[in-house]
Structure formats: C-alpha cells, structure tokens
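Now for a specimen:

…
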Amino acid sequence: MKIGGSCLGRKDDIRRTVDIVKENLKERVRPILVLSAFKGVTEELLAQIGNALEGHFNLEEIEKSHYQFIEDLSPSVRTETEKCVRALLEELRKKLSKVSDTLSLSPSERDKIVVYGEKLVTEIVAAYLTDSDFEAKPLWGDSAGIVTDSIFGNGSILNESKNLVKEKLNVSYIPVIAGFFGKDKRGRIVTLGRGSTDYIATFIAAALNCEAVLFKDVDGLMTADPKIVKNTAVIEKINYLDALELAYYGSKVIYEKSLIPPMEAKIPIKITNFHKPAKGTTICTEGVATAISSLSNVVKLDLFGHAEVTNGISSLLSELNAFGINPLLLTKASHHDASLVVRGSETEIAQRAIRKTNNVDIELEKGLGLVTAIGPKVQKKGLGSVSRLLLDKGIDVSTIEQSASRRNLCIVVKGQSVALAAQALHDHFICCCAHETL
C-alpha cells in the first residue's frame, strides 16, 4: 500500500494510516507500506538545496514540522524516535553545509539530500505503528530489496530486485518502506523520478504477486482533468495499456514506470482516496474505458533537410532516449521533413539531440498544448468526426494524429485552447456516449 505525500500533512493523517493498517491486517496477511515524504517536505528540501548553492540554508521549518509529528507518541517510543529524527536532521545539516561551503552539488549528492523526507517519514510512521502495538520497522533502498541502475535523478529498478524483495520482505513485522529512491550496486542513493513512490509500491506488489493499493488525495483516475473539464467521472476499471497512455500523455494520477511491473506480472492496481472511502479505479488486464488526457506547454519541432530526414529517425529516437526524452508525437510529412512534439522543458535537449544526428533546419512552434483521446470509443468514432467537431468549435489545430491501432487520437492545439479542446473531446467521446454499451 502506497500513501502519497499529499495525504500526509497532519498528525491525523498518520493516525489514518494506522487505521488503514488495522483495517487491512488479516490472519497471516500483513500490509506493506510505501511512503512519500510528508506534504511539502521535498519541495522545501529542494528550496534549501538552492539556498545552499548560494551559500546559506535554513532547516527550521523542516525541523519544526517533524518534531511536531512525534509530540503525541508515548514517552518511551517518543524518546527513541526523537533520537532517530535528530540524527537524520544532523546528517542533513552536514550535507547542506558541505554544499554551502563549496557552492557545488553533483547529481549523486543531490539525490542523497533530497531523500531525507522519505527517511524521516518512515521513522515517524513506524513509531506510530509501534505505539499502536504493531511491530513495524522502517526500510530504505536496498534494505527493502530496491536495487537500481545509476542514473541519478531518474533511475530505474533492476529486475534482480524481484528476488531481493522476496528475500528482504519475508519478515514478521510490518515493513514501512521509503518511496522515491533505491540504491545502486555500489550502495549509492538513486532517486527514481516523478511518481516513483508509486513505482516502488507496484514493483514490490509485482514481485510478491499481490495487489498494489495506491492511496491518493483523489477518488481515482478520471475521464479527464476535472480542473479544466466539466462532468468528469471516476474510471472504475481500465486496462494497463490505456492507463499507460493516459499517464504518458499527461495524467498526474498515475506514473508510467509504475504500470510496467504489474502489467508484466498481471497483478491489479487499485487507486483510491486516502481521506474517504471510495470505489476508486482498478487497473487490470480486462478494464475498458475511454478518457481524455491533456498537457500544456508542449513544443513542436519541425525538421527540414536536403537529405532524407526520415532515414535518420531511428538514430534520432535512440539519441533522444539516451537523453531521457520520448517524443509525445512523431509525424513524417515526406522523406525530407518530419515533426516532433516534446514537453516544453525538453526543448533545448531535443534540439541538441537532433543536431547531433541530423543536418537539418529546425523550426520551433511554442505555446502549444496536447489533448489526447484514449480508448475504444476513439476507435469506434474515428478521426473524421473529431476534425469536424474541432473545426465547428473554432479550435486551431496544429497537428492531429491517430495511432495505428486507432485507439488513441493526439491533437496539438494552441495552449489557450487546451481546456476547450479537452471539453469538446470529453463531450464527444464520453458524455454523449454514456448510454452506449461497449
């Protein structure tokens, strides 16, 4: 069971976590917890890393919040926990002092610092469980079997971790595992990127052949982003591939990497609301759903060359992959030109990769958004009806592309049209089809 940082901001949230453990504790079956840092702590750590690189930092807010969390523990448990928390905070202070003194920070050192939120939360939540007469123990990285590659900031869990997880978590106590990071074969801390607490939880569930439950501050995966689309609904069941596409094309509720281990192991993922009972979303082999995903701030790179640009596409994709970039969209208009759509933050790196593999001219179109319709109703209704719909709505379309399977439809629009396009597609594929039986 993974509990996200947005769910852990108050003492009552820790007590709720203890209650969840009680509710799920059965004879000969015990829950395994994977935790993100307390709400706001990772952001504060990143802010203090930035300050340290300018020669100063302040841990007062982090210290105050964590000491407040342990105030209500019984005296004996509190004394031991306070000792652990103080030791971790002192380690953190020393690492930031080094950064402040040298005004430099390697990717490896950054990873060592930014994980202290997870280290602290596991100590404190394990203490609350102990205070409630459970035997619990905090585990970090390879002590929970999570061995990674050495890509600092965006690592991946090695397959050999499957057997290590089975070995390390074959215990009688309740493991309280730090999310967000593992350790490489040299014992160095490696963070795993955005949403990686989900990734660790689903990897462990796949290794142990059990259900993964992801507790979040939402009811589940939605048919579209409720912040920009009206009349959205919770998706009760969706298959792995459609969920993967939703994540890839913009959903912030689930992370791409976290879907691969359970998809391979064919174990279900449940996404549910931490604060209130909800049916939630189940991701599994047979789920059927249609949904709209959206991204703002994407950039289109049009490539023009005298030689055949498309001959170099495979080399370009390999080079982009080496930089950690997977284009959101790739279109080939002819042998001499092609277009890539990437996230805005990836623009500069993408240009470097293109110039390294192709002698081409690059034209940028910025200020764009990407809206993607995913699922069986997309396949059923097709491209023509959507083109007419967007034209009728007065939405300026830069690119529209349907996958070979025809189960997803990607539309690049002006940034200010993302909400309008998402609402139009939601109405077209989902709201007006709610009565249909697939």
Summary: DSSP finds 14 helices and 17 strands in the chain. Residues 2-210 form a domain with the Carbamate kinase fold (CATH 3.40.1160.10). The chain has two domains: 2-210, 291-433.
